Amino acid sequence: MFTGIIEEIGKVAFIKNTGDAYQLSILAKKVVSDIQLGDSIAVNGVCLTAASLSSNGFTADVMPETLKATNMGKLKPGSSVNLERAIAAGGRFGGHFVSGHVDGTGKIIRKQQLGNAVQYEIGTSEEMMEGLIVKGSVAVDGTSLTVFEVSQGSFTLSLIPHTLTGTILGEKECGDPVNIESDMIGKYVGHFIKGMKCSNKTSISEAFLQENGFM
């Protein structure tokens, strides 16, 4: 489990791709300071397992399914990546519940400076849009953010200077792909509501949840 608060920007050292296997070697300092083999690290929001460790980085294997569902296949040596260790019990929880199981990808279609912040509009599929609401949480490349606006086929975020410099999102430009994980709690609630509708149980509805502050 992660929080979406990026701890460090790492660099891809090399990529081993043999067709049957895809392995990333990532240069990092902070996230390898107290982890063990087999621990989880979120790389651009994708939960990966540390397969080997050194004082200046780690390697992780990436499954073919992960390559299809995320932007990991776009990485190359020298690429910057957002890194976060799994949250420790009793640690500060500054973002939101992030599982590291990316739902899909989107593409930056607009980037605009507004005062001290930068607005990003991200286009994505209709299926992905179903999990996004205004003022709801979303993880973009593993970064916990608040949805500022939702429109047909896209959503808007507003990034403060700290997020722009402390994550790779500040380096992103229009056309760049990003990993998206919608709010975990929202997904469970949505799944539960759909199940209630399918079974004709109407005691809990979207209207009921909204009226009582759950949505």
From TrEMBL:
Q: Which GO terms describe its molecular function?
A: riboflavin synthase activity
The Lumazine-binding domain covers 1-96, 97-193
Q: What class of enzyme is it?
A: transferase
Q: Where are the Lumazine-binding repeats?
A: 1-96, 97-193
Q: In which pathway does it act?
A: Cofactor biosynthesis; riboflavin biosynthesis; riboflavin from 2-hydroxy-3-oxobutyl phosphate and 5-amino-6-(D-ribitylamino)uracil: step 2/2
Keywords for this protein: Repeat, Riboflavin biosynthesis, Transferase
| Catalyzed chemical reaction(s) | 2 6,7-dimethyl-8-(1-D-ribityl)lumazine + H(+) = 5-amino-6-(D-ribitylamino)uracil + riboflavin
Q: Does the keyword section mention Repeat?
A: yes
- Coiled-coil spans are none
Q: Which Pfam families match?
A: Lum_binding
Q: What is its EC number?
A: 2.5.1.9
Which GO terms are recorded in the biological process aspect for this UniProt protein? riboflavin biosynthetic process
Q: Which InterPro entries match?
A: ATP_synth_asu-like_sf, Lumazine-bd, Lumazine-bd_dom, Riboflavin_synthase-like_b-brl
How does it associate, per the subunit comment? Homotrimer.
Briefly, what is this protein's role? Catalyzes the dismutation of two molecules of 6,7-dimethyl-8-ribityllumazine, resulting in the formation of riboflavin and 5-amino-6-(D-ribitylamino)uracil.
- NCBIfam families assigned to the protein according to its UniProt record, in alphabetical order: PRK09289.1, PRK13020.1, ribE
- Tell me the protein's name: Riboflavin synthase
Q: Which organism is it from?
A: Mesobacillus zeae
